[in-house]
Specification:
238 residues; Rossmann fold; 3-stranded mixed beta sheet; 30% helix
Length: 238
């Protein structure tokens, strides 16, 4: 079940003594993970650089759809920007749930994939009704995009715009789905339900917008913005 939408992978519910697995850590493994799994060791096609393993981490080469661990072998499982590449997201998420008691899943959102499309991504996702809903890109015509604003939204604004960073901190599911779970990831792959599918195939109306970006009262909005500001101050002043 869903726990929350963390603002980043640095804001996870990991306890000091937890045994942590990072599935697909690639060139940026989570520092709190003791074990890192990756399907590819020498092939950097699906990542932004060469694989990196920190000194305290054990590396195991394995397929995320068939992890070589016992049930509940880990207290926490982290998986960032991997599921959009896999052939079978249902098998993949079931494996994460099987080997971990809790965890964090991060994947590009539908909006994020429109703005920064990646040819290696097979799937896009949204969180709907506290479930991770996945649709294959080619099934909704996302393989013929001609515009790519990734340099702007993934890099330049991240480097120079404080306002943009504030936005990402107050709306964590804007460019990515950030889903912390306990016991089991709730998901739907290739939904047949017309309501769920409409989020991926039709212009968004009020229902879709409010589902993805719920309305907040003015006091809650001020509080959320203030917390985001303090977080960014700690990073800059730090």
């Amino acid at each position: 079940m869903k726990i929350k939408n963390p603002s980043s992978r640095s804001a996870l519910s990991i306890r000091p003594k937890d045994k942590v697995l990072d599935v697909g850590g690639g060139n940026h493994p989570h520092p709190k993970a003791q074990v890192v799994v990756d399907k590819y060791y020498n092939d950097d096609t699906h990542r932004n650089g060469q694989i990196e393993i920190l000194p305290h981490q054990q590396f195991i080469q394995a397929d995320g759809e068939k992890l070589p661990f016992k049930d509940n072998a880990f207290d926490y499982v982290i998986c960032c920007h991997v599921m959009e590449h896999v052939p079978h997201p249902d098998r993949f998420m079931n494996e994460l749930s099987r080997v971990g008691k809790k965890g964090y899943l991060e994947v590009p959102s539908l909006l994020g994939e429109f703005l920064a499309p990646k040819p290696s991504h097979e799937w896009v996702a949204l969180e709907i009704d506290s479930k991770v809903v996945c649709v294959r890109k080619k099934d909704i015509g996302m393989t013929t995009q001609t515009c790519d604003f990734g340099e702007l939204f993934l890099y330049q604004l991240q480097r120079q715009s404080l306002a943009y960073k504030m936005l990402l901190n107050t709306e964590p599911n804007l460019m990515t789905v950030r889903y912390e779970w306990k016991d089991k990831i709730e998901f739907v792959v290739d939904p047949k339900d017309p309501r769920l599918r409409s989020y991926f195939t039709q212009p968004w109306g009020e229902e879709q917008i409010i589902t993805q970006f719920p309305k907040r009262s003015i006091p809650k909005e001020f509080l959320k913005t203030f917390k985001a500001f303090l977080k960014l101050c700690s990073v800059y002043i730090g």
